[in-house]
Amino acid sequence: MMISKVDKDTALARQLLEFVENCSWYEVKDHIADMLRLWEFTDWECMFAALEDGKIVGMVSVMKTDYYPLPEIYPWISCIFVTESARGRRISGQLIDHANGYAKELGFTKTYIPTEYTGLYEHYGYRYIRDIVNYGGGTDRLYVKELE
């Protein structure tokens, strides 16, 4: 398995868009697909794809903003998804580690993950900070990780 940065107007970008359009993450796949179609990434923002035998099995993004009115908090590790057939092999952890390595190279000292889950991202070194309200009015949990 390898993790590659996805660049605009590349075969990998087209492959990632198709992956997203066909993934089972129904709640956000349209939003992520639109981000890819419109290439709404600025500066250092990007997506990474996990590939096995040339096929995408997972993704993650590093973003300035997420689905929350909190512009002072960034970078966000977001869009974390691994296809069902590839789950159970710690690919999510590898994607998160890769995204954190990228953020650290950029000079960031911490990253944030929003989630509705408890007990998941703690396994990757994140610690709960507080509940946050998203643009849709729902409440999620905000986690932070200090980058070493």
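the 2nd protein, sequnce then structure:
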Amino acid sequence: MNLILFRVDGGTRADVAMGHIYRSCLIADQLRNKYRLVFVSLDHSDFSPGHNEINRRGYSLLLIKDKEEMNSLLDDLKPKFAVVDLYEYSRSELYPFFSRNIETLSFDHFDDSKEFSTFCINPVLLQGKGKYDGLNYTVIPSPLKPTKGQSIKKIFLSFGGFDFGGISKRVLSVLGNIPGEFQINLIVGSSFVKEEVSDLLLKDSRVQLFSNPDHFNEILANSDLAIVAGGLTFFQCLSEGLPSIVICQYQHQKETALEMSQDAFILLGTFDDVSDSEIESSIKKLLLNHTLREQLGKAASLLVDGNGLNRVIQLIESAVAK
């Protein structure tokens, strides 16, 4: 059985959060019944939440201390193909695969070393001219798109596997001051410190807290309004046609969102530039306006069709089949 290697890091380091891990695992979930899969990650404490998630999903994980160890692993494992999902790339990261004729698929890869990647996937390059640039290659679960009602019954909150900006607590505090018979579903990752919001959970019985739920996709799809950061969950909201308020963790998320149609979601900016009053007014605006929610949802679903995962799987399988 052919071996596919996943080289990925993700955890609680600024900009190197859990999105890399979730994306790689989403791809692996589609391949696990056909191929041998091995994950490789740097042995660093910042990345331990990512390691825990890989282990939780039942995948083999090898930890390396440096790039030289990666070279040795490639010689021992001899993978047929590699998926490389890192925050920063370099020639030394990619050339070991290239020199051994191991085809690779990389994500969000902008420097010159991308010449060593067989399939350079850049979904955030909306105006890019590369073959695999643009939102059609956004790797997210296939949308479920249940029918929405006239009123808001469920509000979805998620600010990434690592809530770097502490947005969860702020948004819960704001929602606590907004009356309404809606349920508030807060989804967090394993690195989230639940004690930070324990007082808010006690004060507001509408809030339910979920940590790494297996039914994440269903919770999101069956919501009527989402308040999210600018990572993969944001793109999943778009594909579901879910009206969304976006509070970005990082500047690069804001820059990507600004390039997109501003008729498809409400972008408030990065967490450190957004006031609580702006969050509150945006929530109230959507709570009271079903027509606006409907308009945002329709425009959002036109931006991201939700088939990016299938496109990436086809690329991988076409290379492995050679």
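The mean pLDDT is 95. The chain has twelve helices and twelve strands.
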